[in-house]
Design brief:
9 helices; alpha/beta; single chain; 210 residues; TIM Barrel; 16% strand; 37% helix
């Protein structure tokens, strides 16, 4: 079975591309349990595909998984796994179109969306804490207890997203792993932060796709 990543680094294309790609490359030095999620909601299709190709080349060179956010066609084109937004198709809708071994992750924010995630291989549950990459985000955060409650509703591993730092990660119950943006991309040492987050996650042997 395909291993489920314990750390997902979500792209922030507001950063200069060379800065972003360099930070991602350094984060991937932490090992094969680190995945990249290509997210760029405002990008035109051609630009989104070009960026996906750059990320696929980076991930393939290091042997790390790549997830493409919301675009089944792009994921298939670059040989990536697929991440589904909460408002998008359900895992059962896309699974028949994916080759064997491809993972499906899904965004989850509450118990209802946890039920919708049936059939996913992993879920990114957010926002656990105020997101560092979205200082103007006014959504109510789940907090540790809220995250644990949602994680218990899932039939797949739950990765905590939103304001995750190594310090917060170590005390978060129910997390099979973590997803981050600024904590890694804006770190002085993305490799060191990625390794610290992996140390706070359960062993990879416990996580496998459904």
């Amino acid at each position: 079975m395909t291993p489920v990543p314990r750390l997902v680094v979500v792209t922030d294309w507001r950063l200069p591309p060379d800065v972003l790609l360099r930070a991602l490359d350094r984060a991937l030095e932490a090992g094969p349990d680190v995945a990249v999620q290509h997210r760029h909601p405002d990008a035109p299709t051609r630009q989104f595909l070009d960026e996906a190709r750059q990320l696929a080349s980076l991930c393939q060179a290091r042997g790390n998984p790549l997830f493409v956010n919301g675009r089944l066609d792009v994921a298939l084109r670059v040989g990536a796994h697929l991440h589904l937004p909460a408002s998008g198709p359900l895992p059962r809708d896309v699974r028949p179109h994916l080759p064997p071994g491809r993972l499906v992750s899904m965004a989850v924010h509450d118990a209802r969306e946890a039920r919708d995630a049936t059939g996913a291989d992993l879920a990114l549950v957010s926002p656990v804490f105020p997101p560092g990459s979205k200082p103007g985000d006014t959504r109510e955060t789940l907090g540790p207890e809220g995250f644990l409650a949602v994680a218990r509703q899932l039939a797949c591993p739950a990765l905590a997203l939103g304001g995750i730092t190594p310090e917060r990660a170590r005390g978060l119950q129910g997390a099979a792993g973590f997803a981050v943006i600024s904590a890694v991309l804006e770190a002085e040492s993305p490799t060191r932060v990625a390794r610290s987050l992996l140390m706070a996650a359960p062993p990879s042997a416990m996580l496998r796709a459904l």
